[in-house]
Amino acid sequence: MNNDFFSRRGIKRMQRNIRHFVSRECAKQQSSIRNALLLLLLTGITACQKTGFSYDNVVDNQQTDYILTDTLSVAMKTILYDSVPTSGSGLLLVGTKSDPYLGAVTAGSYFQVIQPGGTDIPVNGSGFDSLRLILRPSGYIAGDSLQPQSLQVYRVTQTIQFAKTFYSLYNNSNFATENTPLGTFSGVIRPKTDKSVSIPLSNVLGNQLFTMLRDKSPDITAGPNFLDFFRGLKIVPGPGSTALMAFLAQDTSLTMRLYYHVNEIVTTVKYVDFKMNASELQFNQVTANRSGTPLEKLQVPVKELPSSATGNMSFTQSLTGVGTRIDLPYLKNMQQLGQFFKIMKVILTVYPAAGTFNGSSQIPTHLALCQVDKTNAVTDTIAYGNLTVDNLYNENTYYSYDITNYCNTQLTADNNGARGLFLTTPGGAGRNSFDRLVINDQQAPKKKIKVQVYYLLYK
């Protein structure tokens, strides 16, 4: 939209549209007299809220209208934020997926395991069998579950811990590992039906742990000593991985299992579990390679790109650290339309760009609308939006938000109080899913972002 929307010519055009709108609306009423009285009463009530305005100011040939406009300019940017907290989410994310809009996304996960308690393995007649990492799918997958997946497991060599004064680990946190994987997996994983995935780990490590348990080594029997000896595991996608998957990350569902046997009258196979420890320290590391995408230039030190530089689109995907900022740069100018102006209702409608999703898949089920300051720091959450899904044609899928209070506040806000709007996936939903949203700006021919302003105007 042109920046001269509120120029003299633009105002005249709006006034003509206003009169057409009012005439059309009045025709729908059963009684034009009742409609006029109601409109006059509503105008009088709201007018009394403005200092200096009263019925004494009204001249017979002046007009008060209740108006709808959806031509207010919207400025959009894709924002890159520094980091996303991913610890303690209860889900382990791993895999790789290429996206034409967001780039090639890769996820891996770090976690600790703790030694089993009260294990009594006989010294004579027992032996080690195998060591395995047991994963339990959550059912979530982004990508093709029919293709073979590849996973690799590494031993962590640094203590997994929070940084000083921080109480989370982030998508860009990192801890050193050994160079050679402890174990690998390759095969088809059916996240909706498979109960577990078993990854064979190093027999050398397994034998060492078995011997320590059998001989009751202080490194494995004295509580904190074990975490100094074995600092944790990292699981990452291997070559050929084409999907992103989620596995449960609780102490009963994520385990390193050691199988052994005891030769008695009949050989008995047994096992002990090294369960996940400190769920608050389990976190997902997520990176994105945006080469060849509209967001290719969105990397430090560049932390924001206007929609005009990204194909008249903006993007939201919390796990990779991007969100959409929305500003209404000419909102205050609407007060110049007449002697008295009052916003009654404002609805923001956000359409996923056509061709970027399928039904309700790939787009966030929940999408938070927040307020942000000039540095893009979130200062408040306005609403979580109403998602309407058109599963048949995908034509009328959209999120809607009532931003009336926000707009009324911004009409009188000074520079310190000025706020923009920010679309992001909230809390746990944003940390556990690779769903993303592609939004058209107002230059797109259809399915573009829309702001509808209902207001009273006394000329």
UniProtKB/TrEMBL annotation:
Organism superkingdom: Bacteria
InterPro entries: DUF4270
Protein's recorded name: DUF4270 domain-containing protein
Organism, scientific name: Chitinophaga fulva
